[in-house]
Specification:
By secondary structure, the chain is α/β, with parallel strands linked by helices. It contains six helices and twelve strands. The protein is globular and about 50 Å long. The structure holds fe (ii) ion. Fe (ii) ion binds next to loops.
Length: 275
């Protein structure tokens, strides 16, 4: 039995910012809702960064407008907060707007389970160091969930765990430290404890990628409104992930992508010392 998951990432509703076409977000969300109605997935995952932040009052309004757009999506929706949802707003404020608890959560979905790893994505601006800081409680939740996993597991987060190379990325080539948690090697070590197939899915980096580490495919999906890969036009990207023994991932829109990967039960052999 397959599990079909629709995915939308980095909606960034609000004023256009750099290459984010936030002005197109609500129109594209209406199109996404129509597509979900036609496609009939089991659920929808929102990978976070629903808005481009300005200040608390503006962000509350923007988040409410995105929540309203999700009300037209005819499927159960699970949200994750991104860094822009956390710049001026608390998790509790996001929970109230979305009408949903936003703690770490394990969903049992038949042959698969989904770990909604809602690790805090707030970028600390003061004091130093500037950047993400993965709370130890979130790391421990991931580690214990993976240690206990008895069936194939999809791990979903806003910030990618892979630490993949950012060469060519508009935002992160020259700012790679903002593409990942400084503790992401520990998150990967936690994943390496899995005795079951694992697939990781994240947003944040605004491009479609597959990175395989330790037999675990890590996917990142393009933003709904990003334009740096699409010559200024919003990508209009949304995805469909079909999980069976394999993971078949399709991304639609102006930046299309498709991959079929087979997550492995066994982990890889530890790499050799320098020659
Ligand atoms: Fe984003």
């Amino acid at each position: 039995m397959s599990l079909r998951i629709a995915i939308v990432a980095d909606i960034h509703h609000g004023a256009p910012s750099h290459t984010k076409r936030g002005d197109a977000a609500l129109g594209l969300m209406a199109a996404f809702a129509d597509w979900v109605r036609d496609t009939g997935p089991d659920m929808v995952l929102d990978l976070g960064d629903r808005i481009s932040d300005i200040d608390e009052a503006t962000d509350l309004q923007l988040e409410q407008e995105v929540a309203e757009a999700f009300r037209a999506v005819p499927a159960p929706v699970h949200h994750i907060c991104g860094n822009h949802d956390r710049d001026h707003l608390s998790v509790a404020q996001n929970e109230e707007i979305l009408g949903q608890a936003l703690q770490n959560e394990l969903l049992d979905c038949g042959d698969w389970q989904i770990a909604l790893w809602r690790a805090d994505a707030k970028i600390c601006r003061d004091p130093d160091p500037l950047g993400f800081d993965l709370p130890e409680t979130d790391l421990l939740w991931l580690s214990r969930t993976i240690q206990a996993a008895a069936k194939p597991t999809l791990v979903v987060s806003h910030v990618p765990v892979s630490g993949h190379d950012q060469t060519g990325n508009y935002y992160f080539q020259r700012n790679p430290q903002f593409s990942r948690y400084p503790q992401s090697d520990r998150a990967r070590a936690a994943l390496a404890q899995a005795r079951v197939p694992v697939v990781c899915l994240a947003g944040h980096v605004h491009w479609n990628t597959v990175t395989t580490l330790d037999g675990i495919p890590h996917l990142t999906q393009q933003s709904l409104t990003e334009s740096f890969t699409t010559q200024g036009a919003p990508a209009g990207a949304w995805g469909l992930l079909t999980l069976t023994e394999t993971a078949h991932w399709q991304v639609f829109g102006k930046d299309p992508f498709e991959a079929r990967v087979t997550p492995q039960t066994g982990r890889w052999t530890p790499p050799l010392m320098p020659f």
